[in-house]
Write a structure and sequence with these properties.
Chain lengths: 361, 507
Amino acid sequence: MATGVSVTPEVAWSARGTTPKEIAAALSRLAGDRDGGRPLAYAPARVLNLVTVVERARRDELVERLERLGRLHTSRTFVCVISDGERRDLDAFATMSCELPSHPGGLAVCRERVEIELGRGQLSRLESILDPLLVGDVPTVVWSPRHREAVDAMLAAAQVVLVDSGEQPDPAAALVRAAELAHEAQVVDLAWLRTTPWRERLAAAFDPPAQRDMLARIDCVTVRHEPAAASSGLLLVGWLCAQLGWAGRGRLAGDRGGSITGSADGPENQVELRLEPVDGQSAPGLAGVTVGGPGGSLSLDRGPGGLAARERRPDGRERAWTAMGASRGEPGILADGLRAALSDDLAYGPALRSAAVMLAA
Amino acid sequence: MATVQENPLSVGLEHLPIDPTTLVIFGATGDLARRKLLPAIYNLAHEGSLPAHFEMIGVARRELGDDGFRDYAGEAIERFSRRAPDAEVLRALLERVRYVSGSLDDATTYGRVAELAAELEAGAGVATNRIFYLATAPELFEPAIGGLGGAGLARPDRSQARVVVEKPFGHDLDSARALNQAVLDVFEERQVFRIDHYLGKETVQNMLVLRFANGIFEPLWNRSYVDHVQITAAEDIGIGSRAGYYDNAGALRDIAQNHLLQLLTLLCMEPPVSLAPDEVRNEKVKVLHAIRPPHPEEVADMAVRGQYHGGTVAGEEVPGYLEEEGVRAGSDTESYVAVKLFVENWRWAGVPFYLRAGKRLARQSTEIAVTLKPVPHLAFQGPDAAGAAPNQLVLSVQPNEGVSLSLVAKVPGARIQIRPVNMEFLYGASFLSQSPEAYERLIVDTMRGQATLFTRRDEVEAAWAIFDPILRAWAGDAAPPTAYRAGSDGPEDAARLLERGASWRRV
């Protein structure tokens, strides 16, 4: 039976008006203080450095999201909080906590969080502040949804940039920005990860050889999405275009109702593309997708216990089933984002480029 | 049949599409199904890893009905799943579950399974593969295979049929051969998935990656540098409620013949051309064929058996083996086995491989320890060099999954003092994922027809051929197994197997 995660009490250090050198020394001391006399064996997490940047007003929201990651360890998490006023020095607060082993003789895996309060003017030299504090030889991921200058500054030290195109007001601009960043680092887009179950179910639906033949005859794709999640819809359409050879020949444009429509040239048909916002969905991301061809269609929609699938065949027969799977929720999406930072995603780049090209056409 | 690679939409997906499948579990109300299979299937549903069209049929003697079995399965999942179930996913899964009550000795049981499977396939409207999972007592394997063949379930017209056979696959070489023959009279080898759940463990699969994706080990991986290898599967628990099985099997059949030999083959095999099932299994079989079974007169020098008596484990008093519920009075079944083997080929000739497995040992630990030869000359002399020790590479399967390499280092100070230190890689500290249960991986592989992590006919028989002389010698030996204290590292007598001054690692 699944059990909750137990962690040791945090050991902590804090200082005002401090320096990166003092913070690094404090982290070393915390590592030495962590056992508190308990008969446990400790292992420092060695997965990645996560650098987050947030303004003071959003600090609590960010920390709550990080804490909901649960047992997923980063090696060292930095929460860089931008002061309301200007400042030139740093305040810092560091903690170390260890997950207690679930079995006798197990190791307690430890993680560290370093919160640094700094001035907005210091963001442009964030890399030089954090570089002495990064755990070596593991990837560094930077996540700064609202402070582009922080991402730009960290590109010299970071291998991965975490973005959420769904959080940006202009989805087209968000995808263009992601495409620019992709030239500099690996980009992990949470809006893309929200499409994962939909891509898996579409791939499964067209996997039987008889169904696979229909891929070439698709003539319409409709993606329904939560109003703020147009970027997920665009990436799903971009993925279809890229994987099915439609890339570079399509075009998409928004209309006043919030829909985005366009078309692409498929191998046998012109493919009508449509993204429709739908109200009333609490979770960010997609609400449904319908893929149609001559006389038939496949629809996937959110439903209890997974995605509700409905297939209409050219002979008029219909089938419905549930493609089982639990919703990962937003903590799960962020966790997926961190996992994705450790692996290559062969499909994201082509999907992003296809979507960006069609938006620009 | 078209391959997955031909589906352009599957590129880059973690969960690749799986053909429509009906999974039929024989022994659906048994311990294995309750503790492992049903929770594993739930977790696959939770993660979206089951096929879009998935149905499950439970088969057992108990009179339950569909709803009764759904209740049973739901309770098993609630209790044993590695994650708390999502109510809606669980409900969606249980809607796909049906039940057939019947004896596996009764041909009509299979007829009803065939009718139900056909009904489910018609309802789905697509050709559906069928997996027959034999999670039954071993004596029911052959009747079940025969029943499946008799009902025409082994050779469907429009889809694939596969059979999963749990361990133990036979109780000696002759019975394994007979069972193989019975299985292959009905199914083709490509349809047969003989399961050894150790192969589904993440750390066991990592052995292939460690060996064949890292250049550092290959130059050392041979008789020139390796002094000896110890493969240990130590359990701190007793036999629990398994006396009926265990007292007829013993540690050699239960653990050494399958799990430990599998670890040995992965450790010793030559690099395969690819990870295709037969490429890997061909190399593993070569290792087994290179192990010379002992002559009867050699058994005493190559194998030690033990049986625990009362003692203390983790601070608790525990009874001896003969006091365990269900054990035959005066049973001479071994609860501990240690064996010395040699892999007689160019790479490994002369390197002893020590395998040991036991119950009620000091702690739970499964590991492979590769001890390298000592340096030819140690410049550091005297008492300060007493800490010098040969390097050891330890692959830990449980509880702390990972790899550690022991080195010797200078103790800080004015003198040149030496002591061993460890470089460690730990799964729990290096990745962001929880490892799936071995059964989850293996069930998916079965549904995909991917047999790399399953044992082949010749592999099973070659493994039995190694241990058959030991079993025969023990059967004819009136002397009881050597006693060891529960909570210890096993019988002291096991030390006599070790050569060249080696000693057992603490379990």
